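Practice problem. Given the sequence and the SMILES for S-adenosylmethionine, write out the predicted structure.
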Amino acid sequence: MKFTRVLFKIVPKNIKGKSTNEQRWLKRQLNDRYVKQSKTDYYRCRSAYKLIEIDDKHRILEPGFSVVDCGASPGSWSQVAVKKVNADGSIPNAKIGQVIGIDLKSIEKIKGATFFSCSDFTEAVVQQKVLKTLNCGKADVVLSDMAPNSSGVRSLDHENIMVLCESVVKFSINVLNDGGHFLVKILQGEKQDLLLRGLKTCFEQVKYIKPPASRSDSTELYIIAKNFNKAS
Ligand SMILES: C[S@@+](CC[C@H](N)C(=O)[O-])C[C@H]1O[C@@H](n2cnc3c(N)ncnc32)[C@H](O)[C@@H]1O
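Answer key:
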């Protein structure tokens, strides 16, 4: 995917009355090449390009796959996943996949995806609903872009996201087909290596990745774990 170089920065209008943080956010949004591209490509947010870049490099999504997308709102990862696994049947003569998204917030409909909006993924009852909806009760890929609301305290944000990671790892071990893949967002901190080592016991390839679309000034990082081996 190519982006044209921006020669002049766009300065937002009507920023009077906004806090310094809001002004900074607005300026960054207006000048962000991924934000601009997402409007052209009809993605709900710039996060779409993180999954696109990850999949272009690591190949985790294929037509016919069943995908669980945890923390799916507003829905850009699900938009990407639906196309890649052919959940909407738009790739002729290819297997039809499935995408199930879950989020605390509401998620607008996407053709080919099933959503559990206003649902806390860490709750057993929600995970049961996902299991029942999955074809054969199994998934080929579990994605988690879940993130707690930022507290502004780096160590606390790390702790909070690790609680979400723990829940999604347990779920994945239960639900993934042999050879399945797992992708999870973390915010960097002291427990990240423990999670990486744990995943190495049941996936063949496990590593940290930071796609170009993930902002360099953010502590956000992803762990990709490929080829699940249930017997290990
Ligand atoms: C960065 S956003 C995800 C963006 C999404 N991947 C996309 O491309 O549209 C993180 C999401 O995680 C959700 N989230 C946080 N904790 C959650 C939980 N316990 N259960 C479900 N969703 C959760 C938030 O509501 C938020 O919408």
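Check your answer against the key. Residues 62 and 84 are 6 Å apart (CA to CA).
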